[in-house]
Amino acid sequence: MNIKIHENGWTVIVEDLDLKTATIEDIHTLGRLVTTNIAVVLRNQNLTPQDEQRILHTLGEVENFIDLKEAEPVWKSFIVPNTNDEILRVTGAPDDHGEEGLFGHVSDLDWHCNRPAQPNRMPVVWLYGISGTKGSRTSWTNGLLAYENATAEFLDELKDLQMICGYRRGNYTEMAFEHDNVFNEHYTPSVINVNERVGNRKSIFCPYLQVRNFVGMTEEESMPLLEKIGEYVTQDKYCYHHDWEDGDVVISDQTEAIHKRWAFDGMPTRLVHRGTCDLSKVSFDK
């Protein structure tokens, strides 16, 4: 395994590692890297869905997305068959029943992260480019750098903010899920995140398009501050931009990051696999 750092100074580029034959220790090394560096990139992979599952389960607990017995037909089209609801199809391409996958629209899939309204959310997102990905771009932020470079005045403005997160139709995706507005008022994560796995380091974590309001503030009062935070954390100097090729894998820890897929006219033929997990099987004592 050859580990390089991207020119941005933080994204990890891993070369000379075939994930199909990667050992448990190889995969745990990737887990540690994704925690310290937020995004890990590997290219030229050739994996089956079962290979993908093995890697995710070696890292930790894996998110089961849908109970197929209860799912509406449209949800079934999101799932890669025979993966125990763990791997999703992100695509505008139809499946065998003529249904497109998750987030198949050609417009931006704007800045977001996996389930910020859930206290036990799986923060590690696995993306694997299967076909038709060339020409598409996904970007990740680095909330750690955003925190380190913030002024004392800005951090003082953020220090007590707690978010009420969820989903509002049209805010970051064109997809119409089950409800127009779903927000969790019983779980209120802080904008200043403390990462216990990495020495209690602090970062700015604000999936601003998935936030309704801050605790103690109305939506109207919260909006200017949400826009200010969003503009700050998504500055180009805090971003890694990945220009996809088929066979690429990007693993990201969204404890301190949000990400965005930019508009792409090729979504009707682009296919990416997606899975999420935690890092509960990885030791951080090394």
Task: Please name the CATH topology.
Answer: Double-stranded beta-helix
Could you tell me the mean pLDDT? 94
Query: From the helix content, strand content and strand pairing, which structural class follows?
Result: alpha+beta
- The percent range for strand residues is 25-35%
Q: Roughly how many Å is the radius of gyration?
A: 18 Å
Sketch the major β-sheet.
Answer: 7 strands, mixed
What top-tier CATH class fits best?
Alpha Beta
Strand count: 16
Helicity, as a percent range: 10-25%
Second CATH tier, the architecture: 4-Layer Sandwich
- In CATH, the homologous superfamily goes by the name Clavaminate synthase-like
Q: State the separation between the terminal residues, measured CA to CA.
A: 17 Å
Number of domains: 1
Low-confidence stretches: none
Q: List the helices and strands in order.
A: EEHEHHEEEEHHEEEEEHEEEE
**In order across it, which strands form the biggest sheet?**
1-2-3-14-6-16-4
Instruction: Report the principal-axis shape.
Output: globular
Count of discrete alpha- or pi-helical segments spanning 4 or more residues: 6
What does this protein look like?
It is a single chain. The chain has about 290 residues and is α+β, with helices and mostly antiparallel strands. The chain has one domain (about 1-275): 4-Layer Sandwich (Double-stranded beta-helix), CATH 3.60.130. The chain is about 20% helix and about 25% strand. It is built from 6 helices and 16 strands. It has helices spanning about 25-35, 50-60, 75, 145-150, 150-160, 220-235, and strands spanning about 1-5, 10-15, 40, 90, 110, 125-130, 135-140, 165-170, 180-185, 190-195, 200-205, 210-215, 240-245, 250-255, 260, 270-275. The strands form 4 sheets. A 7-stranded mixed β-sheet has the order 1-2-3-14-6-16-4. The longest helix has 15 residues, at about 220-235. The chain is globular and about 50 Å long.
